[in-house]
Amino acid sequence: MEEAQITVPKHIAIILDGNGRWAKKRKMPRTYGHAAGSKNVEKICEAAYNMGVEYLTMYAFSTENWSRPQDEIDALMKLLNSYLKDCIKTSQKNNMIVRVIGDISQLSKDIQDKIEKLEHISAENTGLHFQVALNYGSRNEIIRCVKKIIEDEKKGTIQVNDIDEKRFADYLDTKGIPDPDLLIRTSGELRLSNYLLWQLAYTEFYFTDTLWPDFNKKELEKAVTYYSERSRRFGGVE
Question: H or E segment at 140?
Answer without folding.
Answer: helix 138-155
